[in-house]
Amino acid sequence: MPGLISYLLIALITIMPLVASAALPSRHIDYSSLHCPEDPLATLATPTYGTEGAIFTVCTELVIAAAPAAVYAAVLDFRSYARWNTFVVDVALPNNISSTPDDVYVGMPMRFTSRGLLGDLFNATSTEVVSLLESPGAAATSSSLVGAWRYNDGVGGIGSRAEHPNVFVDLGNRSTRYVSYETYYAGLTTGTIALLREQLQDQWDVQARDLKSYVESL
Ligand SMILES: *[C@@H]1O[C@H](CO)[C@@H](O)[C@H](O)[C@H]1NC(C)=O
Ligand SMILES: *[C@@H]1O[C@H](CO)[C@@H](O)[C@H](O)[C@H]1NC(C)=O
Ligand SMILES: *[C@@H]1O[C@H](CO)[C@@H](O)[C@H](O)[C@H]1NC(C)=O
Fold first, then answer.
1. pLDDT one-digit tens code per residue, 126-141
2. What spacing in Å lies between the alpha carbon of 212 and ligand 3's midpoint?
3. Of 20, 23, 127, 176, which one's alpha carbon is 20 to 30 angstroms from that of 106?
4. Is the CA virtual torsion 206, 212, 215, 218 positive or negative?
5. Which of ligand 1's atoms lies nearest the C-alpha of 107?
6. In terms of domain of life, where is this protein from (predicted)?
7. Is 90 helix (H, G, I), strand (E, B) or coil?
């Protein structure tokens, strides 16, 4: 056990500077021209981790007939996921959050319950942290909004790192080009997640189509 702990500590110390130095790349991602890659081996940078160590990206892109601010609000309205999202069927939030998207803040922890990754008999859970919010107000001069959260493995990212940006590009005709992607990075448990990649991509597509139907029906 002490061996494991010192191993984890060394790994933590090694990885911390990476995490810290990766805090800046969000400014360098040109979200409004971002598209899902056609090459299945290509990966997309994320605001927290950038491109280094990226293993794979799951991505869905579609046009939703609603203003970007409305789609953005729906994606951050975690309390309402059970109404439309057949993949992430439940989101547990901190006790002091009574209203979403209004109370959502950067650094907010969440626990997602997801269906369909491990067959129909099991739900999967994951702990996530909101990592980026470019709200309609702040982004009034830009043509895109972004909301992101990252996976929290509880051990500083040694086990696994992943981040899920949601990009909402204004098409100018009360429509939004929505790009939802998650990039997975090298870590001790990344191999296990890589085995689920196909299921993940399928559920990713389902989730974006669910969102489109929901928002267009509001
Ligand atoms: C909830 O708690 C967090 C962490 O203490 C704080 O940053 C946030 O502003 C609080 N939100 C509300 C709506 O009280
Ligand atoms: C999965 O989670 C949902 C929502 O919390 C719940 O209704 C359902 O019964 C769960 N399914 C399984 C197999 O545990
Ligand atoms: C808005 O423009 C996009 C891109 O040209 C198009 O795909 C979409 O169907 C248009 N939406 C509406 C509501 O006309």
1. 999 999 998 655 555 5
2. 14
3. 176
4. negative
5. 7
6. Eukaryota
7. strand
